[in-house]
Amino acid sequence: MSVVTLEKPIQHIGLADWQAKQWQNQQTNDTRRDDAFNLRHESRQLRNETRIRTDWDTYHNNVRLADRVTELYRWRDMIQACLDRVNSEINALKDEKFSTEREIDALGIPLGVVSECISMRDNRLGAELTYDDADTELKKELCVVEAVKKHLMERSLAAWEKINKLQEVKFKLELDLNDKSEAREIDKEQLGLDKNCANISHKTDPLRIAKGSIPYESWLEHSRYTKLLADSELQDTYKLREALFVVRERSRNDMRAQRDTVDFTLRKRIYETQKARNELEWQQKKMREEMEKVQAEIINLENSIQDKEDAMKLAETRLENRSYRPGFELARDEAENGLKDEVMQLKQTLADIFGKLNCAKATYNALEDQQLIIDKDLANKSQSLMTDVRCLDMRIRLRTGEFAGPATDTDRNIVLTRMEKEIPPN
Fold first, then answer.
1. What b/e sequence results for 145-168 when a residue is b if at least 16 CB atoms lie within 10 Å of its CB, and e otherwise?
2. Is the pTM above the cut of 0.90?
3. What is the pLDDT of residues 223-252, one digit of tens each?
4. Which residue stretches, if any, does this entry annotate as coiled coil (predicted)?
5. Closest CA to 243 of 154, 358, 174
6. Distance of alpha carbon 83 from alpha carbon 234, whole angstroms
7. How far apart are CA 311 and CA 327, in angstroms?
8. 167-174: which pairs have CB atoms within 8 A and are 24 or more residues apart?
9. How far apart are CA 76 and CA 70, in angstroms?
10. Cα-based distances in Å from 268 to 178, 271, 274, 379
């Protein structure tokens, strides 16, 4: 059985509809072309504007990067100059500290010499062990040297602390300098990039704030603070170096003045002791002469006594022999009276001579005792004199070529104390 298919009948439109359709298509085509033209124009305008904006943005950022590199160069030069000054000040302060420490070590000689002089002068004997001006000035010199040593040690400790601070500042400067140098190289590298470089690419979240980043004002404040810190420490260091130099020179002047005072008092004491010793030597000489005279007088008195004893014996013998006269011849005549008067006179004379002999012996003993005292005092003064001269000989180590004169220290002290005539020639 066959199926018959019925075709849909074709609908015909009118001419007016066809013309309207043609006009509508024409209008649509014109609109589409206008839209395309406008799109192309706007696109070209957008491309030009964005290209110009991008070029200018790139230019301005290149200028900013160049300014940043220049600023980093400037700060790097300032920090480098500060670092060079810090290194120079560290070396200079180390030299000053070394000089101060060497000065402290050199104070061992004055301390030893002064202590040895005091100990040596304490070995004086008898009345020579006195609290004289030389002893006072020596102890004052010891106090001066100890005070100088203490002051120099305090200054040396302050220099050591300042060197540590400068080392810290140096570390901060070096760290800041390295950071700025690295940042400068990074910015220079970014300044050299362009859109045609091969090592550029899209990055994940490029607009993020980098961890640890700080505002520009904080960076500028940190840089200024670092420079101000270095300048402040450098200024303090310069003052400290000046103080170290001044305290060393002042200490030397104080010690030199005290040393000259001690030397003068020692020479004065030597002169006084020498004068007293010369006086004692003259007294000793006169005492010995007087002892010899008294001893001769004692001998003369003893001889006189012996002579008077013989005369006494003669007179007594005559009286005894005349007592044997016989009878009326045993008369108390002038001869007997004269002999009796002679005996009485001789007894009185012997008593007087014996008294004078005892006085002479007592005087001789007193002179001998005084002679022993003079000898002991003279020995003490000689020992004290040689002690002070040896002190001057030891103290010559405190001088460094300031005295141009005799070849040896002993000769110099002999000249200063005027003992040329006191010392026998070789």
1. beebbebbeebbeebeebbeebee
2. no
3. 899 889 888 888 888 888 888 888 888 888
4. 273-318
5. 154
6. 10
7. 29
8. 167/90, 169/86, 169/229, 169/230, 169/233, 170/83, 170/86, 170/87, 170/90, 172/226, 172/229, 173/79, 173/82, 173/83, 173/86, 173/226, 173/230, 174/83
9. 10
10. 69, 5, 10, 19
Amino acid at 209: I
DSSP assignment letter at 406: S
How far lies 215's CA from each of 54, 62, 283, 322, 422, in Å? Answer: 26, 20, 100, 154, 90
- Name the one residue in this structure whose structure tokens are 């022999």: 321
Report whether 349 contacts 310 (CB < 8 A): no
Is there a contact between 159 and 96 (Cβ–Cβ < 8 Å)? yes
Whether 315 and 343 have beta carbons less than 8 Å apart is answered as yes
pLDDT band at 274 (very low <50, low <70, confident <90, very high): confident
8 Å CB contact between 315 and 342? yes
Q: Distance between CA atoms of 57 and 379, rounded to whole angstroms?
A: 108
* Beta carbons within 8 Å of 83's beta carbon, 6+ residues apart: 170, 173, 174, 177, 230
Structure tokens at 184: 């400068």
The one-character DSSP state at 323 is T
Cα 164 from Cα 42, distance rounded (Å): 69
Would you state the pLDDT for residue 412? 57
Give the C-alpha separation, 412 to 392, whole Å.
Answer: 9
Do the Cβ atoms of 387 and 124 come closer than 8 Å?
Answer: yes
Q: Which of these, 244, 226, 232, lies nearest to 94 by C-alpha position? A: 244
**Contacts of residue 273, Cβ cutoff 8 Å, sequence gap at least 6:** 128, 381, 384, 385, 388
For residue 374, how many other CB atoms are within 10 A of its CB? Answer: 19
Q: Are the C-beta atoms of residues 121 and 135 closer than 8 Å to each other?
A: yes
- What one-character DSSP code corresponds to residue 209? P
d(C-alpha 250, C-alpha 244), whole Å:
10
